[in-house]
Amino acid sequence: MKKILITAGPTREAIDPVRYITNYSSGKMGYSLAEAAVKRGFAVTLISGPVTLSRPEHLAEFVQVVSAAEMAEAVKKRFPLMDAAIMCAAVADYRPVCISQSKIKKNGGNLLLTLERTEDILQTLGKIKQPHQQLIGFAAETDSLQAYAQEKLRRKNLDWIAANLVGRTDRGFQSDDNAVTLYGAHGEIIDFPLCSKRELAEKILQAIFPESSSF
Ligand code: CTP
Fold first, then answer.
1. Residues 6+ apart with CB under 8 A from 154
2. Which of 121, 135, 180 has most ligand 1 atoms within 8 Å of its beta carbon, as the pocket-test mutant?
3. Is this prediction's pTM over 0.85?
4. The ligand 1 atom nearest the CA atom of 117
5. pLDDT in tens, 149-207
6. Could you write out the DSSP letters of every residue in the chain?
7. Which residue from 35, 53, 104, 159 has the highest number of Cβ atoms inside 10 Å of its Cβ?
8. CB of residue 116 inside a 6 A radius of ligand 1
9. 52-62 tens-digit pLDDT
10. How close is the Cα of 90 to the center of ligand 1, in Å?
11. Whether the CB of 93 sits within 6 Å of ligand 1
């Protein structure tokens, strides 16, 4: 049985005990991929940031994390045992340098938050990836989809990248639907027009793992 690791959802980066930085990711795309991978006979490890979705059935493992650092630790520990990984999570790129232990009180002036980079988990996996392992990333772009996606594919040493346009209300992030273009390391370009994330997940897996079939 092939083992696949999938990340999903946003991460939360704490500012103080009552506030955090996050993004609009709903987790629907990653959860749909996990469900589709189970149907195709994979042993699925789903590593999820905070979402309101219910846990897919028949997972090999379900790991709930909150921050980018927790997600990085959970993913790096498990990746060497996997045949493939799909990094669908919208991981925060920055986190506050200091987390205040007490609630930050307002005052008359501005509040300046200093943020530092989080680890790029996908890039780390691209560096440690073995020849038998397939690594798939996602790219959310507001413009120049193909150029940015193919640059990310190369820079992060991926086998595939699923790129989608964000900043439109009919697709992506909170929506039930999405349209993506899949770019392969060997120059493949496959367009998947707007459809449900459930359907899209099936099509993406069919394209990347044609030898597996859904039951
Ligand atoms: N990703 C990750 N760890 C991070 C940030 C992103 O693993 N700290 C992964 C996401 O899961 C996704 C891909 O990287 O698969 C997105 O790439 P990224 O370069 O973060 O995309 P953008 O945030 O759109 O990058 P940029 O700011 O360069 O547009």
1. none
2. 121
3. yes
4. 8
5. 999 999 999 999 999 888 766 666 667 888 999 999 999 999 999 999 999 999 999 99
6. --EEEEEESB--EEEETTEEE-----SHHHHHHHHHHHHTT-EEEEEE-S-SSPPPTT-SEEEE--SHHHHHHHHHHHGGG-SEEEE--B--SEEESS--SSPPPP-SS-----EEEPP-HHHHHHHH--TT-EEEEEEEESS-HHHHHHHHHHHTT-SEEEEEE-S-TTSSTTSSEEEEEEEETTS-EEEEEEEEHHHHHHHHHHHH-TTS---
7. 35
8. no
9. 999 999 999 99
10. 7
11. yes
Residues 176, 177, 181, 184, CA torsion sign: positive
Residue 23 bears catalytic tag: yes
